[in-house]
Design brief:
There is one protein chain. The protein is α+β, with helices and mostly antiparallel strands and 184 residues long. It has helices at residues 18-24, 36-50, 66-80, 89-94, 98-104, 144-147, 157-164, and strands spanning 105-107, 114-115, 117-125, 131-140, 154-156. The relative contact order is 0.10. This is MYO5B protein. One of its GO terms (biological process) is actin filament organization. Belongs to the TRAFAC class myosin-kinesin ATPase superfamily. Myosin family.
Length: 184
């Protein structure tokens, strides 16, 4: 299949704006520079042409920009499918599991906000190839980090936040005060 190597620039660049989406829309793979929009266009075109499901696998190390790349692909689909003006679909899909994100992020030696969960995002299209819905499934990536953490790493953020709030009356019944060693 097609492989695109993308590097997270850690800042907003003008290569992901609306006019760039339109530039890649309708183009053949290889006619333009490698880009997440080229990959998304190819998947979209193949879906429409062959009426078959398509997959885009976004993989990489912590902090590589996987979530951002997924957002750009969804923005591309919403724009070329005519639904971008109606909804901000990528935000709705990625915001659909905020509790899982709050519980699942931790500090690693490479990234202060590293997700411990992978996401499988299934996007549904109607007969006109407009996005009609999405389903996000999460799965635990690194079970070892649940019971072990490397030096200079921190486990799940939510646990530390709860422990820091242990003295609040609404958290009294949770028994968080016994985790005093985490409050340093």
């Amino acid at each position: 299949g097609i492989v695109l190597v993308a590097i997270n620039p850690y800042e907003q660049l003008p290569i992901y704006e609306q006019d760039v989406i339109y530039a890649y829309s309708g183009q053949n793979m290889g006619d333009m520079d490698p880009h997440i929009f080229a990959v998304a266009e190819e998947a979209y075109k193949q879906m429409a042409r062959h009426e078959k499901n398509q997959s885009i696998i976004i993989s990489g190390e912590s902090g590589a920009g996987k979530t951002v790349s997924a957002k750009y692909a969804m923005r591309f689909f919403a724009t070329v499918g005519g639904s971008a003006s109606e909804t901000n679909i990528e935000d709705k899909v990625l915001a659909s599991s905020p509790i899982m994100e709050a519980i699942g992020n931790a500090k690693t030696t490479r990234n202060d906000n590293s997700s411990r969960f992978g996401k499988y995002i299934q996007i549904g299209f109607d007969k006109r190839y407009h996005i009609v819905g999405a389903n996000v499934r999460t799965y635990l990536l690194e079970k070892s980090r649940v019971v072990f953490q490397a030096e200079d790493e921190r486990n799940y953020h939510i646990f530390y936040q709860l422990c820091a709030s242990a003295s609040c009356p609404e958290f009294k019944d949770l028994g968080l005060s016994k985790y005093f060693y985490l409050l340093v």
